[in-house]
UniProtKB/TrEMBL annotation:
Residues passing through the membrane, by range: none
Organism of origin: Herpetosiphon gulosus
Pfam families xref list: CutA1
Family: Belongs to the CutA family.
UniProt-listed InterPro entries: Ion_tolerance_CutA, N-reg_PII-like_a/b, N-reg_PII/ATP_PRibTrfase_C
Coiled-coil region: none
Protein's name in the database: Divalent-cation tolerance protein CutA
Record PANTHER family: DIVALENT CATION TOLERANCE CUTA-RELATED, FI09726P
């Protein structure tokens, strides 16, 4: 089991897509938990045009060794051709909570 927990940020186009992704990641044991933050504003360039859109942000907790599978699954389910998937290592925190994340997420080695 990897001893590194990560937070993954994923933006989605709407609440239904956010719930679908969150449920899939937790059900498939690719994530220990997911927070869904309603209605964020995103400003970015896309195809040379300045865009301003409302999106939903997912905050996902997982293990380092599950990141590849998690990213692959998000890319399969996501409506965007280039979804935002950013993983950040958790440097410190409640050791009991970090241990819970590590115990909830499964990888191919755990199966």
């Amino acid at each position: 089991m990897s001893d590194t927990a990560h937070v993954v940020l994923i933006s989605t186009s709407n609440a239904d897509e956010a719930r679908t992704l969150a449920r899939a990641l937790v059900t498939e044991r690719l994530a220990a938990s997911v927070n869904i933050l309603p209605q964020i504003s995103s400003i970015y360039h896309w195809d040379g045009v300045l865009k301003e859109e409302s999106e939903i942000l997912l905050i996902v907790r997982t293990r380092a060794d599950a990141l590849g599978s998690l990213i692959e699954r998000v890319e399969q389910l996501h409506s965007y051709s280039l979804p935002e998937i950013i993983a950040l290592p958790i440097v410190d925190g409640s050791q009991r909570f970090l241990n819970w994340i590590l115990s909830e997420v499964m990888t191919n080695e755990d199966a």
